[in-house]
Write a sequence for this structure.
């Protein structure tokens, strides 16, 4: 289909509202994206006309809800380029998914002195679970730095893999810098060394087409609310070999075949890792979001966002007093910046908000990256499929207003 951003914007009711008397310019997509009507309608229908618990009852509504819910597993598999939908574990998002890998797969098999390779660009969701292993089992974390532009050389990650490496946990796309990482090259080299790879796809899946089977990773985590779906939804892909090695992470209903006083028999994957009543409606809404994206075409989304990226680079580069963090050649439409002088990122974002421009300010759950660049906080403008070049202009104008106030 032809990509018509003005038509797409009509699918998002919130974009018509004003903030502080100004048209909303929503540039906080890296934290959470807005929801199209297709998602809002799916959630409303699921709650108002089709709600019941899944995997439990034999009545009509339970069967219908189960069908709607389970269909999402296949939708996610298609979106990610995964042939077998039974390799998709449904959850509440990337944080849940990575913690599941840490507890269900890594903890049983890692010992003191074993190593996990990470980059300094990782989100805390892909750092803190590995610190659990460092604290509790003596696992060492091996860090790989970016260069001054924020680019991550895949060969440096590969070279960090040693005889004690048990996992590489790496982001596909930095939530702070927008840097795109060549995870396919990393996965290929790690496989030759017999080392599994977990890819944090929270941002990567939003901005570019995916083929996880071709990528060759062992785990790939996504989160629904960044993909224009509801919060509390998400999934993680796990390879068949890793699924066979994982023990259950959370116990309860649905993940069992039989329970008695003496023993428990677990269900097969993926149900083995989906205990309790899930986020039924959130997941159904997530499926609607992914179908919406696939109808548009992720190639079209990427092409549109690349236009925004290039235009924003041109405009922001013309501000001599603006300091951009993340200027790698391979980059998505995510921009972190600070200003010369004493203006704090929180103050800058407050001025932008007065102009109707919503950006993020803080450390963006990326403490090691902030330390690497020697800063405490940045403003971050992150673009999505409904943003326009006119909104880039609005961002730049608001930044100039903030600079005039603080200079």
């Amino acid at each position: 289909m032809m990509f018509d951003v003005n038509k797409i914007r009509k699918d998002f009711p919130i974009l018509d509202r004003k903030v502080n008397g100004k048209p909303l310019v929503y540039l906080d997509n890296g934290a959470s994206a807005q929801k199209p009507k297709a998602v809002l309608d799916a959630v409303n229908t699921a709650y108002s006309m089709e709600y019941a618990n899944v995997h439990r009852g034999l009545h009509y509504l339970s069967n219908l809800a189960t069908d709607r819910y389970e269909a999402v597993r296949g939708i996610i598999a298609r979106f990610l380029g995964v042939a077998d939908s039974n390799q998709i574990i449904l959850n509440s998002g990337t944080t849940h998914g990575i913690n599941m890998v840490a507890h269900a797969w890594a903890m049983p098999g890692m010992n003191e002195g074993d190593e996990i390779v990470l980059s300094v660009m990782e989100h805390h969701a892909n750092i803190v679970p590995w610190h659990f292993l460092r604290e509790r089992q003596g696992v060492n974390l091996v860090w790989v730095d970016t260069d001054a532009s924020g680019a991550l050389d895949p060969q440096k990650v590969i070279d960090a893999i040693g005889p004690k490496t048990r996992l590489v946990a790496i982001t596909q796309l930095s939530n702070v810098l927008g840097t795109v990482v060549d995870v396919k090259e990393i996965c290929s080299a790690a496989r030759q060394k017999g080392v599994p790879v977990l890819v944090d796809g929270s941002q990567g899946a939003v901005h570019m087409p995916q083929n996880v089977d071709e990528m060759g990773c062992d785990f790939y985590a996504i989160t629904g609310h960044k993909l224009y779906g509801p919060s509390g939804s998400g999934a993680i892909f796990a390879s068949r070999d890793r699924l066979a090695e994982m023990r259950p992470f959370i116990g309860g209903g649905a993940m069992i075949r039989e329970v008695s006083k003496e023993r428990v028999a677990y269900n097969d994957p993926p149900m083995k890792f989906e205990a309790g009543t899930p986020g039924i409606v959130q997941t159904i809404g997530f499926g609607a979001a992914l179908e919406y994206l696939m109808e548009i075409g992720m190639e079209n989304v990427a092409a549109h966002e690349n236009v925004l990226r290039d235009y924003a680079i041109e405009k922001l580069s013309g501000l001599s007093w603006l300091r951009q963090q993340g200027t790698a050649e391979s980059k998505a439409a995510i921009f972190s910046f600070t200003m010369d002088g004493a203006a704090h990122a929180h103050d800058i974002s407050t001025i932008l908000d007065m102009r109707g421009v919503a950006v993020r300010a803080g450390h963006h759950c990326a403490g090691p990256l902030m330390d690497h660049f020697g800063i405490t906080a940045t403003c971050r403008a992150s673009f999505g499929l409904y943003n326009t070049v006119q909104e880039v202009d609005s961002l730049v104008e608001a930044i100039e207003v903030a600079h005039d106030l603080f200079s």
User: Anything to note?
Assistant: The longest strand covers residues 165-171. The chain has a mean pLDDT of 97.
